Amino acid sequence: MQITSKFTVAVHILACIDIFDGQMRVTSDFLSGSTGVNAVIVRGVLGQLRNAGIVETRQGSGGAHLAKALDEITLYDIYKAVDCVDDEGLFHFHENPNADCPVGRNIHKAMDGRLEAAQAALENELKSTTLAQVVADTRKIIDEE
Amino acid sequence: MQITSKFTVAVHILACIDIFDGQMRVTSDFLSGSTGVNAVIVRGVLGQLRNAGIVETRQGSGGAHLAKALDEITLYDIYKAVDCVDDEGLFHFHENPNADCPVGRNIHKAMDGRLEAAQAALENELKSTTLAQVVADTRKIIDEE
DNA sequence: AAAGTTGAAACAGAAATGTTTACAACTTTA
DNA sequence: TAAAGTTGTAAACATTTCTGTTTCAACTTT
Predict the structure, then answer these.
(1) CA distance A111 to B135
(2) Looking at CB atoms within 10 Å, which of A41, B102, B106, B144 has the fewest?
(3) What is the pLDDT of residues A46-93, one digit of tens each?
(4) Is A108 helix (H, G, I), strand (E, B) or coil?
(5) CA/C1' separation A57–D6 (Å)
(6) What is the dihedral of CA B133, B135, B136, B138, to 10 degrees?
(7) In 3D, which of A143, A134, A145 has the Cα closest to residue A17?
(8) Does B141 contact A106 at a Cβ distance shorter than 8 Å?
(9) Interatomic distance B145 CA / D8 C1' (Å)
(10) A55 Cβ contacts chain D strand, under 7 Å
(11) Does residue A17 carry a pLDDT above 90?
């Protein structure tokens, strides 16, 4: 089980937009080249980021741009934007526990709070990190090369 | 994306073993009935729990038993036992970032620490919860019915 | 010896995910 | 206005992952 790579692709895309915008047109084709991911997938991710208000894109005129400052975009915003987890939650409960069994009938309720707490711990950590930090680290590594 | 339901099935199974052991033989067939999950899947989960030293089962003689005290089993132990996440980690990095692009070449390194921290936050939360707590809650809910 | 059970492998089906192809809608440039 | 380049999106296809099913050998108890 792994969280969809669209998440890391999205971060990669946003880092590219920040670093290359102004120098060149950051098209889905260019981003496909940098990420190694199909241009249609890139456009899909860009669409989700656009719906979340994180980037701006327009038909015809190529080139994506950030819609927010880097330090106003957290990893959690991106994680939500690309739908890493659905409304069911991170953990998948088995669907048909036996209601005639006292355990089967109640285990879901007994676990729910714990599972939500675990998911919240993950998400809070993502909320505490901004793209500004990730891009700063990336630039630093590039400069040190 | 969701963590395999084998995790909640495993917790359900362990709760059943604790609650019904002594009263009846807790066989894979019985557990299949309580969880609503195929008996072969149940035996698979029991096998993983046995490998992790959490339960004891034997061929021929039916009936699973706990191999540890309830308060010595954390949700993390179960999560590891049933292989919720593999060695690659919870997050899935896209495989072919372009090494000719400064971002593509370095984004992985720039993100890794952050992703590991997020995964650790989830796992630490699971480590802080024992089966004893979950079963106590389950018994409490049963008693209040 | 018979009945019940676990362990494990092989196969099938379903569901989720990712890829590719195709094309209409749009913008810019010449 | 025409051409070229780009985005948005749908549809078809392929791949992967998860779950269920079947089958049977090995084992234990009665």
Answers:
(1) 9
(2) B144
(3) 999 999 999 999 888 778 999 999 999 999 999 999 977 877 789 988
(4) helix
(5) 10
(6) 120
(7) A134
(8) yes
(9) 54
(10) no
(11) yes
Chain B: give the shortest CA distance to residue A48, in Å: 16
**Of A60 and B139, the one with more pLDDT:** B139
Which residues, listed in sequence order, are joined to residue B21 by a DSSP beta bridge? B24
**DSSP label at B130?**
B
A107 close to A97: Cβ distance less than 8 angstroms = yes
Provide, as residue numbers in chain B, all residues whose Cβ is less than 8 Å from the Cβ of A145: 102, 106
What is the SS3 assignment for A56? Answer: strand
Distance CA B84, CA B29 (A): 24
Which residues of B spanning 16-45 put their CB closer than 7 angstroms to strand D? 37-38, 40-41
* A79 close to B118: Cβ distance less than 8 angstroms: no
Q: Which of A5, A10, A3 is nearest to A78 (CA)?
A: A10
The Cα A11–Cα A30 span in angstroms is 15
Residue nearest to nucleotide C25 (CA to C1'): A59
> Count of CB atoms within 10 A of residue A133's CB?
16
Relative orientation angle of helices A28-35 and A39-51, to the nearest 10 degrees: 110
In this structure, the dihedral spanned by the alpha carbons of residues B126, A131, B100 and A39, taken in order and rounded to 10 degrees, is: 90
- Quote the pLDDT of residue B89: 87
Task: Output the CA torsion sign for A33, B85, A94, B74.
Answer: negative
Smallest Cβ distance to B103: which of A3, A34, A102? A34
Query: CA B137, CA B132: separation in Å to the nearest integer?
Result: 9
Q: Does residue B136 lie within 7 Å of nucleic acid chain D, judged by its CB?
A: no
**Cα dihedral sign, A46-A54-A116-A103:** negative
Closest alpha carbon to B107 in A2, A120, A75, A53:
A75
Is the pLDDT confidence value at B124 over 80? yes
Predicted TM-score (pTM) of this structure: 0.90
